[in-house]
Amino acid sequence: MEQVPRVLVTEKAKRVIDQLRDQHGELMFHQSGGCCDGSSPMCFKKGQFRIGMSDVLLGEIHGCEFYMSSSQFQYWKHTQLTVDITEGRGASFSLEIPLGIRFLIRSRPFTQEEIGNLTPVMEGVQGMK
Questions:
Q1: Mind telling me which Pfam families this protein's record contains (predicted)?
Q2: Is 127 among the domain residues?
Q3: pTM score, two decimals?
């Protein structure tokens, strides 16, 4: 049985990621813990956001690593996250903001069947490629 991913991405968000990657090179995401634009996924040039031992790698979306703090993960670990976009400028440092859009998270709880087959997370800098 195939492992269930913890984070997914919509087709619309993939197109934005492609556009940003063309402009900035390799990208990464970090799920904001409430600063600036609430708790939005923030997109950075790979390596621009410093990943530490208090972060976990949830997986990859469209070739980009997706991290969040381990303390925040304790609240979100039972939900599958889907990165999407919406119109409107956010108040963050995320790369998509100048485009007049922002990334957002849609979530749903994992089913009992899925919980036993989730993609494992990697803690801290161990998950960095």
A1: DUF779 (PF05610)
A2: no
A3: 0.90
Going by C-alpha positions, the residue among 52, 50, 31, 59 that lies closest to residue 121 is 59
CATH number for the domain spanning 83: value is: 2.60.300
Mean pLDDT to the nearest integer, 52-61: 93
List, in sequence order, every residue forming a beta bridge with 81; answer none if it has no partner. 7, 107
Give the residue-averaged pLDDT of 36-43.
Answer: 74
Nearest to 13 by CA among 86, 78, 77: 86
Domain membership of residue 14 as a residue range = 7-118
- The answer to whether position 126 is within a domain reads no
Q: How many domains does the chain have?
A: 1
Pairing state between β 79-87 and 7-9: parallel
Report whether 25 contacts 45 (CB < 8 A). Answer: yes
